[in-house]
């Protein structure tokens, strides 16, 4: 009976160690970070290539070139 209890305790210890091990978390975090960065890049690309941003940039450049100092 004592041997069964010690084997059960050893098995429970191994299961607990496997379930609480954080090894591999950095890979998952890296994957989610890369996915979030790619999504943000896609959104920024769509915003910058939109008509509103393009016309605003053209307006700023036109105003800067047409103004004379003084």
Précis, in short:
The chain has 70 residues and is mainly alpha-helical. The chain is built from 3 helices and no strands.
Poorly predicted regions = none
**Strand pairing plus helix content: what structural class?**
mainly alpha
What is the count of helical runs? 3
Per DSSP, what share of the residues sits in E-state strands of 2 or more residues?
under 5%
Radius of gyration equals 30 Å
Helix and strand pattern: HHH
The counted number of beta strands is 0
Overall pLDDT confidence:
82
Oligomer: single chain
The best one-word shape is rod-shaped
* Total separate domains: 1
Largest sheet: none
First-last Cα distance: 99 Å
Instruction: Determine the fraction of residues in helical runs and give it as a percent range.
Output: over 70%
InterPro entries: DUF4244
Protein name: DUF4244 domain-containing protein
Transmembrane segments: 28-48
Keywords: Membrane, Transmembrane, Transmembrane helix
3D architecture notes:
It contains three helices and no strands. With 70 residues, it is mainly alpha-helical. The chain has one domain (1-19, 27-67). The longest helix is centred in the middle third of the chain and has 24 residues, at 25-48. The radius of gyration is 30 Å and the shape is rod-shaped. The mean pLDDT is 82. Keywords: Membrane, Transmembrane, Transmembrane helix. This is DUF4244 domain-containing protein. The chain crosses the membrane at residues 28-48. InterPro entries: DUF4244.
How does the SSE layout of this entry go?
Blueprint: H1 2-20, H2 25-48, H3 51-66
Transmembrane segments: 28-48
Protein name: DUF4244 domain-containing protein
Keywords: Membrane, Transmembrane, Transmembrane helix
């Amino acid at each position: 009976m004592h041997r069964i209890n010690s084997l059960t305790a050893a098995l429970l210890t191994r299961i607990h160690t496997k379930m609480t091990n954080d090894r591999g978390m950095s890979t998952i975090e890296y994957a989610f970070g890369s996915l979030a960065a790619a999504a943000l890049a896609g959104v920024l690309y769509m915003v910058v290539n939109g008509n509103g941003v393009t016309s605003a940039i053209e307006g700023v450049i036109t105003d800067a070139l047409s103004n004379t100092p003084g």
